[in-house]
Amino acid sequence: MSHAMPSRETLSCMRDCVECASICAQCLHHCLHMGGEHAEPEHQGLMRDCEEICGVAASFMSRSSHQVADLCGVCAAVCNECAESCDRLANGDGLMKQCAQTCRKCAQSCEQMASANV
After folding, report:
1. Residue 28 CA to its chain's centroid (Å)
2. Global pTM value
3. Can you say how many angstroms the Cα of residue 19 is from the centroid of all Cα atoms in its chain?
4. How many Å apart are CA 34 and CA 11, to the nearest integer?
5. What pLDDT is stored for residue 5 in this prediction?
6. What burial letters (b/e) apply to 92-112, b meaning 16+ CB within 10 Å?
7. Minimal CA–CA distance to 48: which of 68, 9, 78, 15?
8. Contacts of 72 by beta carbon, 8 Å cutoff, 6+ apart
9. Nearest CA among 48, 112, 54 for reference residue 86
């Protein structure tokens, strides 16, 4: 395990993951209050998965874990799936659109980390 400072790309991805985890937590709560499809277990679980994996990915990157590439690959997949779900249910809702955009940005960063660390 490297003890050097994280690269600029790693720091950027860590920020994207933390931002994504935060917006997913906000949107999860928001969707519960909206009810209907927004509160269904599938959508709620997906947002929770996204929130949690983004937090774990940021933690793994912060300590230069050897598992970063694998975890970032999974994180990207979950983020993309969450973005699709939020877009599908947004119907003009600003927070849900912001969540989808943030998830896509995080997915892109994680995809780059996954391919750079293989």
Report:
1. 13
2. 0.92
3. 8
4. 34
5. 78
6. ebebbeebbebbbebbebbbb
7. 78
8. 13, 57, 61, 110, 111, 113, 114, 117
9. 48
If one counts every other C-beta atom within 10 angstroms of the C-beta of residue 64, the result is: 15
Structure tokens at 115: 């391919």
The token duo for 108 is 């892109």
Residue-by-residue DSSP string for 12-81: HHHHHHHHHHHHHHHHHHHHHHH-GGGGSHHHHHHHHHHHHHHHHHHHHHHTT-TTHHHHHHHHHHHHHH
Instruction: State the amino acid at position 44 in one-letter form.
Output: Q
Cβ neighbour number for residue 32 with a 10 Å cutoff:
13
Tell me which residues of the chain have a pLDDT lower than 50: 1-2, 118
Amino acid at 90: A
Residue 78's identity, in one-letter code, is V
Q: Which CATH architecture has domain 8-116?
A: Up-down Bundle (1.20)
Name the 3-class secondary structure at 5: coil
